[in-house]
Amino acid sequence: MTDQNMNDRKKKFRLIEGSKEAGENLSEQPVAVVTGAGRGIGRALLNQLLKRGYLVVAVVRSINHVRELFTIDPKNILPLRLDITEASTEEVLKEFLEGQVERVDLLINNAGHGATGFGIEGLDTKELEKLFSVHCFGPIKVVKACLPFLRKSPQAVITNISSRFGSVEWVATGTVPNDQSTYSYRIAKASLNMFTCCLADELAGEGMKVISVDPGKVKTRFGPIDADCEPEESAEAILNLIDTNKETGIFKNAKGEKLPW
Ligand SMILES: NC(=O)c1ccc[n+]([C@@H]2O[C@H](COP(=O)([O-])OP(=O)(O)OC[C@H]3O[C@@H](n4cnc5c(N)ncnc54)[C@H](OP(=O)(O)O)[C@@H]3O)[C@@H](O)[C@H]2O)c1
User: Fold this and answer.
1) d(Cα 158, Cα 195) in Å, to the nearest integer?
2) What is the domain class of 30-253 according to CATH?
3) Which of 15, 32, 201, 237 could form a disulfide with 254, with the two C-beta atoms 3.0–4.6 Å apart?
4) Ligand 1 center to residue 42 CA distance, Å?
């Protein structure tokens, strides 16, 4: 990429997405990337990360969320409008990061949604594709975009927000209420967990940690009817877990208890 192209891109992102002025020193501040930062657990993670002094690349789907986030804290939030199911996700995110940050210390793959068809009769393979796209292919693209920047951090962590419904063992043993979750959601989150394992194994030699976390039953648009936890509470617990965790290739709940794969 030529210097001219780089400058044009930085200018474009400053105008469209709202981002740091060129030349600001970003090197001291820890940097996080959070997907699905517009609402729910992702927004709470963003709030908690700001309290902890992070510069946050906030991946959101709507331009309204970009505008809103930019008014909240333009110095410490770099909003990027991106649907992680789009084919260009890796390229767009990588270009954005190249123009805005030197490294990434923490990536949280949080964006996601549920499905509607329950049981094998209700399972629509088109919907399954959508769930794979957001819970598995999306996080893979996001990791690929962030990896060169994560490698520049001395203690990088990748956290995949999974679900207890992604535990093969708990689904097999009926430990989770299987009638409360679709095949598509359970299969897609189990795939995300496998991605966690593959990546943790490959990156262990580089000292990078990769974990799957179940956020609990959280009161969000997506959350279950028996949700018992506020998004801020869940987000704080997840970040405390990330701060204190010394292992890689693990699946834990936000309280720090190990879950079976
Ligand atoms: N809530 C719970 O009890 C619970 C339990 C277990 C696991 N989880 C997991 O936690 C994560 C967050 O869920 P939540 O409860 O916070 O749900 P939520 O309030 O519905 O928020 C989901 C977020 O993901 C974003 N998103 C969805 N599809 C996207 C895409 N293709 N590209 C970019 N962003 C996308 C949404 O953006 P828009 O605002 O544009 O729609 C929204 O910001 C999900 O992965 C979910 O599976 C939640």
Assistant:
1) 11
2) alpha beta
3) 237
4) 7
